[in-house]
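User: quick one, fold this
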Amino acid sequence: MHVSPKTWNLLRMTGRALGDPSHLFQNVDISEIAKSRLVIFGEVHAAPAVVAVQHEVQKHMISHISASPQSAKLHVVMEHFSLEMQTMLNRYLNSEIDLSTLAKEYHDIGTEGHDVNAYKEVLEFARENPQRCVLHGGFIPRTYARTLMRDGVEVALTAAKEKNYVEDTEECESTDEHYRFFESLLTGKDPQDFDRPLSDQFRRMLPAQVLKDASMAHTVNQLISSPSSAEDRILVLCGNGHMGYGHGVPERIFKRHPTLKSEATSVYSRPTLLDVDESEGGLVLPEDMSKVLHGALGAAEFCLIYQDTQAVKEAAAEAEAARIKEETSKAYDGVGSTAHLTGDIKKAVRIMRSLGYSDDEIAYVGRDAYNYQGVGHPHSHAKIQRGEVVLDLGSGLGVDSIIASGYVGEEGRVCGVDISEEEVKHATLRAHERGANVRFIHGDLEQLPIPDSCIDVVISNGAFCLVPNKRRGFEEAYRVLKPGGRMVVCTSTVKEDLPEDIEWPVCMQVFVNLKELEPMVKDVGFEGVVIDASDSLMSVEVEEEEEEKDRLAMLVDRVERMKKKEDDEVDSVDSVDSEGKDVRGRKRVHGGSSSKDYEHLGNFDMNELCARVVVIGRKPGGGDVVSKCPY
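Assistant:
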């Protein structure tokens, strides 16, 4: 596969570049690297651009030995396969099994966990050139690293030496400089900041890393020491963390074969979201490239800077998510700023009843009913009990949180989280005025400001419609729930992906596909998952049958009497009439097809496009140690 030069560049780490990372790295060609007898290629695992360049290096190294005796070979030593997988690799090279079978057997063994198919180009080229290219498993099986962490270095080394997986003299020792680099991989700190004091947080983990380095170096050293190796070349493919700054694999190779250093070269891979620009005489890097090269300056002789297309997509998705969140926050801030104005209580009561709220729940809400914003009735599934701790995700103006507070009583607690600061302010004021045991906080449903395992029940009513990353939202709900805790989320979905040539409202743009919900929630970890679509129509019937009118009138009367009990009520005049028309300045978000921007939506049957559902799940476990909710 050909990768456009615009997506990657190989740069020589010149002395001037190290002094001024903003420009003047020397741009080089792959053939220059491939001339070396030993190439140690540090990678970001399974990155398509990296694998493509590795394949180009592989082909160029083969071309350099084509004029050598027929016995000369290129040995590709791969981190991705353990030493015990060599027989499987040999069967593949001998065409006894194909790539799909190799990947299946690899997965069945299950110890290494790499994406074998991502390296198809490298693997298939080796199989097509069996006389010139040999594949080698390079790492000790991961089970040995687990043994080291559990039973200690000596036990793991003894077992590894019995299998000839490492040198007899190996002790898994390392330097402070190596640990500084290792720590930087885990923390993002600058490995070249030698003034920074080292912590001991990760020291216990380093020997397991070194054990892998030792096994790969031992494999390479055996190939170098082979009597027939004079014309052979070696390409080592391993993660950046196993070779950066000469630590790990190269350190142990050159300790055994110091003269080989002059015939070897190394490559360190670094992704970027930036476009890479070639210019006459070399590569001129934008100022932000210094950030890209943070932690890579001097890590190897060459640096492969590649445009991470997946990261670009993820960055675009994050930017779009940020836009949606900002737009949502702004829109609902407008709603919150006018929520103190009274609304059409009769219409609110009809809507809540049609969604399943009981007369007692509606009466308990009282005058706050006209600030109802949901798409369903989570309480019928949540079965909130007295004394429980409840979290309302996307609590809005607080209606469901207030109902929940009635169920938990004085012994329990309710916390509402919402992205709109104005709605949080209004809900907080109303909770104080009512004396409700509810606290509202401003926050992002994808990054909840709530500790792990401290919530009995998570409810949400309509807010998940506007969460850009639905999976992350469900993961956060799972995280904060106690073992055995339950989740009830009322949300709207699309039955099929929406046509891209139609302008849809922001909310519909981020509706989740109904078919994706159940597998997503199960994959997060919830059990007993149910997607209740028994009341899925998007249009809510609010007209009452004749025999229900008296009951409705009685319920509205209960709500009106509750309103009058509140001494602080300033204005009881409706600001929205029974037709939903704004007459007093109350702001709404959902204008539907009446909005001029979305008049074309009147041509669509929303019941055909979308569905309201209730997502129900339970976090496994129960009786485990849990955290205390601070709210």
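User: anything notable?
Assistant: The longest strand covers residues 481-494.
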